[in-house]
């Protein structure tokens, strides 16, 4: 029987792209989405998708809808605790060892970012996290790690109910490329860098040597990881790892901030948006003053001075994941122009 899927974040960049792929690749799936507002084109684009109107804070609704699903795919605000608990409560209602339910949750490599360690601000940290070799460390990160609150909830559920609740965390790195969903189609990091240049520095920028390095993945490759996991869940678990081992990085490449800034500076200069192509080397103090409106004092450091280096071994080994999309530099001009409001 076709699986019943409950997806959140369907108007978002990542969740929307997953929804679009699911509808196109698996028209037989029975899909329900949680939306707090319905985009104009949604019903005509996805006539077979059932809409439940609500917010993550409406936990009774989230739990009741999850209870009807075989597979929950939870995207959206990755730090929201009540909604993940509600999904788990709902999924546990009807699950049995002979008919387990599945929870696939979007996380982020903020979990392993070295923002708390000043020794590598603006410099390359030699530590590269591997989702197979480092799994014990990854499943016991300190409580101060980003996303840890949610990962602990998911991992506890996986340990307590692993016979009937199969959990996986897709721990995505920075994503690029145009999204395919009905709502947001831009990722986060390129617009944030663009915004800082236009409203503050007037030049692309880096700090220290600019060696701090981030892993990246194209949205189409990230969606490919999702699809493989969802298809495994639909087959009763398939060859995928679930539970504590169900932790998947998605990276296809890594790029230093200096290389990123150099490329962005060139694109902006070529399009007449800034005057100087060469990125500016800023003092760390300037980076500390960035993104303070987010209310997290490390946000500038996190966005522009720290490292998130990951290797996606598990998805390659277990799911046969092979990133195929063009690399970041091949897509950067389109993403920068989208951030500048010059892409349709
Ligand atoms: N993009 C990246 O590079 C990246 C990489 C790794 C991890 N992440 C993390 O993954 C998550 C999703 O990323 P994204 O780029 O897809 O973000 P996004 O485009 O902003 O999408 C967020 C989605 O979540 C929904 N949402 C948020 N709060 C909600 C609530 N309280 N109730 C119901 N729906 C809610 C939004 O609905 P509305 O349309 O109604 O607002 C939207 O559909 C974020 O937490 C992000 O930090 C992103």
Automatic annotation (TrEMBL):
It comes from the Eukaryota. Gene3D superfamilies: NAD(P)-binding Rossmann-like Domain. GO terms for molecular function: aldehyde dehydrogenase (NAD+) activity. Residues 9-81 form the NAD(P)-binding domain. InterPro entries: Epimerase_deHydtase (IPR001509), NAD(P)-bd_dom (IPR016040), NAD(P)-bd_dom_sf (IPR036291), NAD(P)-dependent_oxidoreduct (IPR051783). This is Uncharacterized protein. GO terms for cellular component: cytoplasm. Residues 150-237 form the NAD-dependent epimerase/dehydratase domain.
């Amino acid at each position: 029987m076709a699986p019943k899927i409950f997806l959140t974040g369907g108007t978002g960049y990542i969740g929307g792209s997953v929804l679009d792929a699911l509808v196109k690749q698996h028209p037989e799936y029975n899909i329900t989405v949680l939306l707090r507002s319905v985009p104009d084109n949604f019903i005509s684009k996805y006539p077979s998708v059932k809409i439940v109107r609500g917010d993550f804070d409406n936990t009774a609704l989230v739990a009741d809808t999850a209870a009807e699903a075989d597979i929950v795919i939870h995207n959206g605000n990755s730090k929201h605790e009540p909604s993940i608990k509600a999904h788990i409560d709902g999924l546990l209602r009807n699950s049995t060892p002979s008919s387990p339910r599945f929870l696939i949750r979007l996380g982020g490599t903020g979990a392993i970012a070295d923002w708390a360690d000043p020794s590598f601000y603006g410099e390359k940290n030699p530590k590269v996290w591997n989702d197979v070799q480092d799994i014990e460390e990854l499943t016991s990160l300190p409580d101060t790690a980003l996303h840890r609150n949610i990962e602990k909830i998911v991992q506890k559920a996986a340990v307590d109910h692993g016979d009937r609740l199969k959990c996986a965390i897709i721990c995505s790195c920075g994503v690029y490329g145009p999204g395919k969903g009905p709502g947001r189609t831009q990722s986060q990091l390129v617009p944030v860098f663009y915004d800082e240049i236009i409203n503050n520095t007037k030049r692309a920028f880096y700090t220290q040597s600019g060696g701090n390095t981030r892993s990246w993945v194209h949205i189409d490759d990230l969606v490919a990881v999702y699809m493989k996991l969802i298809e495994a869940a639909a087959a009763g678990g398939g060859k995928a790892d679930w539970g504590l081992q169900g932790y998947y990085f998605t990276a296809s490449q890594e790029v230093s901030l200096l290389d990123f800034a150099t490329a962005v500076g060139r694109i902006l200069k070529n399009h007449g948006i800034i005057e100087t192509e060469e990125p500016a080397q800023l003092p760390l103090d300037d980076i500390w003053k960035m993104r303070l409106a987010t209310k997290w004092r490390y946000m500038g450091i996190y966005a522009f001075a720290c490292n998130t280096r990951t290797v996606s071994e598990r998805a390659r080994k277990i799911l046969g994941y092979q990133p195929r999309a063009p690399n970041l530099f091949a897509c950067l001009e389109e993403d920068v122009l989208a951030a500048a409001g010059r892409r349709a």
